[in-house]
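Hi L.,

You mentioned the student needs an example of a multi-chain input paired with its predicted structure. This one should do, with 214 residues in total across all chains.
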Amino acid sequence: MNHSILKGHLDGLILSVLEVEPLHGYAVIEALRHRSDEALDLPSGTIYPALRRLERSGRIAGEWSVVEGRRRRTYRLTAAGAATLARERSEWTAFSAMVDRVLAARP
Amino acid sequence: MNHSILKGHLDGLILSVLEVEPLHGYAVIEALRHRSDEALDLPSGTIYPALRRLERSGRIAGEWSVVEGRRRRTYRLTAAGAATLARERSEWTAFSAMVDRVLAARP
DNA sequence: TTGCTACATATAGCGATGCTACATATAAAT
DNA sequence: ATTTATATGTAGCATCGCTATATGTAGCAA
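Structure written out for the whole complex:
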């Protein structure tokens, strides 16, 4: 049931929303939900570990702050992250074209 | 290094080549390589377990034969497999449109 | 004969990752 | 007092593509 068709593509999506502007985790979830026309509604157990992975690998940089009494960690895209994003965009283009081609053939 | 962007999409690709005609594992590898313009060259450790999974779940049905002294297991798409393929095609359409939308946005 | 290449299948075990379930805390509204 | 929205986190599960390795046949070249 848990296809998780998303596997391997989440990082690119996150980097893509952070490219527009720095956001904290909760806002990343909302941004992805809006940008995908409500198709993507990621659970916290997906997004927070993903952000920590991206930070640990240097693709994004996070900083704590407190807004209206709530602490939040806001992430911005690094130069390395921008490079990764560019690579993931072109990989996605090739990959999706390939899948389209293979799925299109009919008996 | 091991992106494996393919995760979650392999079953659809296999079902799609088996929809055209029944094939054995080795021929599935070749069919995917040709249909993808040499982009996909799956190792045996990927394809054979995937075929066994699809068979165990009733999406394909396999049968042993011997051709020119070599034994092979030829798989055909079942009715359940055709239904799965149809669902995966429409899921892929929605998924790829969503990723396109999210990755397209720029700062 | 030996060795190489293509054909053909298989499995143990690894690594990565999205997700469920749960936990914690603040602020505002009911 | 309770619920809802905001905000983050982790333990542990399940899945699955892939590496590495193993086995065997057929045909051809040196």
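You could point out the following to them. The longest strand of chain B covers residues 60-67. Residues 2, 4, 6-8, 10, 42-43, 45-46, 49-50, 53, 68-71 of chain B lie near DNA strand D (CB under 10 Å from a C1').

Best wishes,
N.
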